[in-house]
TrEMBL record:
Lipid bilayer topology: Multi-pass membrane protein
GO CC, one annotated term: chloroplast membrane
Residue intervals passing through the bilayer: 6-25, 45-61, 67-90
GO molecular function, one term: kinase activity
InterPro entries found in the cross-reference section: Phytol/farnesol_kinase
Subcellular compartments: Plastid, Chloroplast membrane
Family stated for the protein in its record: Belongs to the polyprenol kinase family.
Protein name listed in UniProt: Phytol kinase 1, chloroplastic
Organism annotation: Eucalyptus grandis (Flooded gum)
Length: 141
């Protein structure tokens, strides 16, 4: 726990998790803009690192419903952001370039739904989600 009060602790955990996730995403947007990595590798690093950040920040939250809901805000906000980017409502070419193979913004809306498919192996929660991210990321490498 980050604080003695569980409500304050969950709010602080949300701020830390959100800030860390945003920092990682901004870092890879910059690397895509500057061409530091190959576009394919950059995209894979975005997927793997965002999943890892989410998994590593999960223990900061309390085990109750409030902790789970606040933890779900982090990927939830990112999903809404990707929907806005993919639909063209929000323009951010660096993000589109860092997340897509060919720079097509419409691909962003398709890619956010793939990790949310039901897994037939019965894996649950974070482990199943991260395994899906890793499988997606390792296919092109």
């Amino acid at each position: 726990m980050l604080h003695q009060n569980p409500v304050v602790s969950d709010v602080l955990a949300t701020a830390v998790s959100g800030g860390t996730a945003l920092t990682v995403l901004r870092l890879f947007e910059e690397t895509a803009k500057r061409g530091v990595f190959d576009q394919k590798l950059n995209r894979k690093l975005v997927h793997v690192s965002f999943g890892l950040v989410f998994m590593l920040c999960w223990p900061l939250f309390s085990s109750g419903h409030r902790g789970a809901l606040l933890a779900a805000l982090i990927p939830g906000v990112n999903i809404i952001r990707m929907l806005l980017l993919g639909s063209g409502i929000w323009k951010d070419e660096a993000t589109v370039k860092s997340m897509t193979r060919f720079g097509d913004r419409r691909f962003v809306t398709r890619v956010i739904w793939y990790p949310h498919c039901i897994d037939d192996r019965g894996e649950s929660g974070l482990i199943g989600l991260h395994r899906l991210y890793l499988n997606n990321c390792s296919t092109d490498l």
